[in-house]
């Protein structure tokens, strides 16, 4: 389903649970070009693909497999994530639009071929307007099933592969830029970093920080991941709900989104927030409140752009060296965003949004498209 008109909205949209009657209104409010639902009773596949913008190029975004509490929750998630991908690609300087796919179900299922081949047919039905890749709950091996049904897939085994390595590196360089802005130096040696989430990206970031001389405090819902970080990296473990109040220099959210919210803002004891998670702010006003508290915030889609850069490597035919250099340039982008925010006295998320919107507006004007946010 498509929308004829896009309504500008603030980036932080509360996670309401829409019913069938207001789903169209929600899609229009987020300003999407197209949202596609697909259900296949044979495989049990239930999927939603959201295309936010193709002004800069085909919409790229991974496929998230998650046990959502409701269909409405899944819709809100795919709309927010796909819009974030538009801004992420725009600020990173990539010729890509923003999209996302979510699959509703148990991501631990072993019967993966049928469901992911169905997902491949869903992707293919969009005719190349959307390119998919792995995300939370999926892997390059899953994408190998998807590619049997469509060529519009990246992040395949033997090609760019797992994007988490470059994502972690990009966040690390973003954190260096944040350190330069806050403390006047790049390195994290001697600084305490509280890392929430030890998946592929979070643990990879911890490895980089450990080699950089940082002190690590970690949490994860998986006790095995925590024990690994404690044993291999000398990290200090805390309970999942205690990570927010840890006295530290940096808070690095690397799990799910909306972790900067009414409950956590008051207990944060850090100078910098910079992590790999998407949609870190539960609402835009939480970015405003971070600013008022004097806590520097590296906008999530700027910090974690290494993943989309890694995937773009396949699309554009880049070498691994060129992709690495592009991820390294996240450092410069972060400094630019934080400097604009300081000089114009606006929250950093607004500064990042402005850069993205300027690039999108230029592309839309060149193509004779109506202005979209």
Layout: helices, strands, pairs:
Layout: H1 20-30, E1 34-40, E2 45-53, E3 59-60, E4 63-66, H2 71-92, E5 97-104, H3 113-124, E6 130-131, H4 140-146, H5 164-183, E7 192-196, H6 200-211, E8 215-219, H7 223-233, E9 236-237, E10 250-253, H8 262-265, E11 272-273, H9 284-293, E12 296-297, H10 300-303, H11 306-316, H12 320-328, H13 330-344, H14 348-366
Parallel strand pairs: 3-5, 3-6, 4-5, 7-8, 7-10, 8-9, 10-11, 11-12
Antiparallel strand pairs: 1-2, 2-5
> How would you classify the helix and strand content by structural class?
alpha/beta
Oligomer: single chain
Strand-residue fraction? 5-15%
Termini separation comes to 19 Å
Number of domains: 2
Number of strands: 12
CATH superfamily of the largest domain: NAD(P)-binding Rossmann-like Domain
Query: What CATH architecture of the largest domain do you see?
Result: 3-Layer(aba) Sandwich
Description of the structure:
This protein is an alpha/beta fold. It folds into two domains: 1-82 and 99-159, Rossmann fold; 164-358, Rossmann fold, CATH 3.40.50.720. Helix content is 45%, strand content 14%. The chain has helices at residues 20-30, 71-92, 113-124, 140-146, 164-183, 200-211, 223-233, 262-265, 284-293, 300-303, 306-316, 320-328, 330-344, 348-366, and strands at 34-40, 45-53, 59-60, 63-66, 97-104, 130-131, 192-196, 215-219, 236-237, 250-253, 272-273, 296-297. The strands form two sheets. Strands 1, 2, 3, 4, 5 and 6 form a six-stranded mixed sheet that branches. α3 packs across α4, α5 packs across α6 (200-211) and α13 packs across α14 (348-366). The longest helix is centred in the N-terminal third of the chain and has 22 residues, at 71-92. The two termini are 19 Å apart.
């Amino acid at each position: 389903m498509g929308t004829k008109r896009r309504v500008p909205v603030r980036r932080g949209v509360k996670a309401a649970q829409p019913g069938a009657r207001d789903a169209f209104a929600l899609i229009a409010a987020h300003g999407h070009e197209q949202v596609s639902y697909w259900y296949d009773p044979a495989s049990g596949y239930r999927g939603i693909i959201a295309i936010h913008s193709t002004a800069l190029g085909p919409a790229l975004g991974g496929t998230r497999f998650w046990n959502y509490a409701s269909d409405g929750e899944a819709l809100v998630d795919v709309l927010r994530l796909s819009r974030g991908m538009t801004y992420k690609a725009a600020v990173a300087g990539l010729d890509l639009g923003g999209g996302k796919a979510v699959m509703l179900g148990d991501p631990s299922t072993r019967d993966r071929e049928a469901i992911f081949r169905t997902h491949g047919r869903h992707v293919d039905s969009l005719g190349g307007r959307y390119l998919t890749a792995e995300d939370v709950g999926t892997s390059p091996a899953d994408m190998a099933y998807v590619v049997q049904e469509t060529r519009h897939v990246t992040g395949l085994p033997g090609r760019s592969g797992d994007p988490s390595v470059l994502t972690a590196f990009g966040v690390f360089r973003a954190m260096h830029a944040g350190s330069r802005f806050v403390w006047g130096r790049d390195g994290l040696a001697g600084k305490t970093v509280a890392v929430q989430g030890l998946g592929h990206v979070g643990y990879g970031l911890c490895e980089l920080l450990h080699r950089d001389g940082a002190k690590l405090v970690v949490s994860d819902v998986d006790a095995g991941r925590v024990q690994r970080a404690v044993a291999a990296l000398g990290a200090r473990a805390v309970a999942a709900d205690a990570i927010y109040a840890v006295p530290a220099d940096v808070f690095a959210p690397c799990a799910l989104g909306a972790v900067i919210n009414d409950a956590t803002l008051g207990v944060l004891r850090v100078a910098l927030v910079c992590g790999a998670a998407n949609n870190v702010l539960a609402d835009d006003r939480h970015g405003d409140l971070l600013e008022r508290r004097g806590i520097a915030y590296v906008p999530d889609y700027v910090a974690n752009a290494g993943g989309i850069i890694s995937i773009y490597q396949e699309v554009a035919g880049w070498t691994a060296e060129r992709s690495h250099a592009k991820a390294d340039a996240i450092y410069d982008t972060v400094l630019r965003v934080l400097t604009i925010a300081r000089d114009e006295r606006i929250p950093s998320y607004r500064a990042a949004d402005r850069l993205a919107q300027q690039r999108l507006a230029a592309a839309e004007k060149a193509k004779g498209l109506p202005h979209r946010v």
